[in-house]
Amino acid sequence: MSARTGVLTGAAGGIGKATTERLLKEGWSLVLVDRDESIKDVAASTQTSGDQKVLGVAADITDPSTYGEIDDAVAEIGAPLKLLALVAGVLQEVGAIETLAIEEWDRVFNINLRANMLLMKHFIPALKAADGAAIVTVSSWYGKSGHGFFGAYCASKAGLISLTHTAADELSKDKIRVNTVAPGNVATSMHLDALTEEAEKRGISFEEMKKTEWDKIPLERAAYPSEIADAINFLAGPDSNYITGATIDVNGGCLFS
Amino acid sequence: MSNGKGGAVVTGAARGIGRELALGLLKDGFGVVIADVDPDAGSKTVDELAKEFGDKVIFTRTDVTKRAEVKAAVDACRKTFGSINVMINNAGFNKPEPFLEASEDIWRAILEVNSLGVLIGIQEAAKAMIEDGVKGKIINTASIAGRSGFPDFAPYSASKAAVISLTQAGARALADKGITVNAFGPGVVDTPLWEKLDADLLAMGASSAPGEAMGALAGQILLGRVAKPADVVGTVQFLWSPQSDYMTGQVVLIDGGMILQ
């Protein structure tokens, strides 16, 4: 396979790291983006082979004025940009709509939805020029169903699924496929923190909270980050060439839709 | 069997999507049972595939509406290849009729094969997997018509919605045995089923030239072309591989962008 570059956001997180590892195995060169400065170390510590390159860029994805550095990294790698993997996302501070601070709503929407629109907008010209490319978003089963105390998170992920459909429609003629992976619970620090917080909110122990959540999952466990990475890799690669505007639900059976 | 992955049964594998999936499984190292109701087409397919894959591919004459015949296909797989690791319930057919003229006979015939056949296939494969302690993968062929009803083939649409329900029910029933059940939903695929459908729609007066009905549907596809059977193989391979181990009860649409949901 000839040289090709992918931009991956949220690359310092659990799913981001697993996705990096998976995509590197498939021969991608990558620009790893995260708000945390440690992303440069993450990039430096990856295992590459041949002329594969991995560069880390610390950027605030909600601020397009920081995207120039990502462009520079793509240019430095020098291979066409054929993948935009939008993994970055945040959970909300758990709380009812009645008491939800609008600042928290805005923060969650800025990262989970607005930033992804801005990133698509910015990178679409480069993806078009690559003559065959993919955009993969990471939504959530919470974007396909509403859940108490997660109003902002659920709505932002529902919006992301809709944005994915719109982008698929607009970009099919430019040979850009756009799809989303909708994970269920994934054993990342983000999920475990959310369980801790919700347990406090409900006045129960972490173990009880975990049991309540995991008992709803037919496969009786959270996903490994690598299992989400496998689906992202599938949507980035040739095996999904005829798929666009689709959702791959990797949720252990916790939601059928 | 050295370095094989075990056995797989594909129903409706004499032609079309089923045949491509059988080929994909063979290339991936599985022994494959071509289970089809048509012995002539089925034997011919096995003969052709055997040129490359030898005794890794066998035929069973299987009417998916007959439990004993489905069980026989599953048992042939276990006997020949050691176990059944993948079951693809793919057999199905369509017969268009204008909505107001959709008849009981066609309804019963389509539901019998497309829906009951899938229920029996899930059951018989799962029983064997449980007995053998195999954490298998069951994959059903749904359709975009299972997500969105089409007026000229109401029974087919309903039968494929049933496939999705059976996928979900089976997933819940079998999760604690380590068996996953998923479906894939093709859009318009250039197969004998769609060629016949195109001809039937023409005969019915729903279109005025050969290829027109299929072409009209293709016009709604974002990627601008109908699928080839090979287009679905990558996705179904994802579903039979360990990469999809955390997926169960799900439907993956491979429609080139028709039903965005």
TrEMBL record, chain A:
Protein's UniProt name: SDR family oxidoreductase
Species in which this protein is naturally found: Flavimaribacter sediminis
Family: Belongs to the short-chain dehydrogenases/reductases (SDR) family.
Keywords from the named record: Oxidoreductase
Stored Pfam families: adh_short_C2
Gene Ontology MF terms in the entry: oxidoreductase activity
From TrEMBL, chain B:
Record-level Gene Ontology MF annotations: oxidoreductase activity, acting on the CH-OH group of donors, NAD or NADP as acceptor; quinone binding
GO term, biological process aspect, one: fatty acid biosynthetic process
Domain of life: Bacteria
Keywords linked to the UniProt accession: Oxidoreductase
Pfam families listed in its UniProt record: adh_short_C2
Family (UniProt): Belongs to the short-chain dehydrogenases/reductases (SDR) family.
Protein name (database record): SDR family oxidoreductase
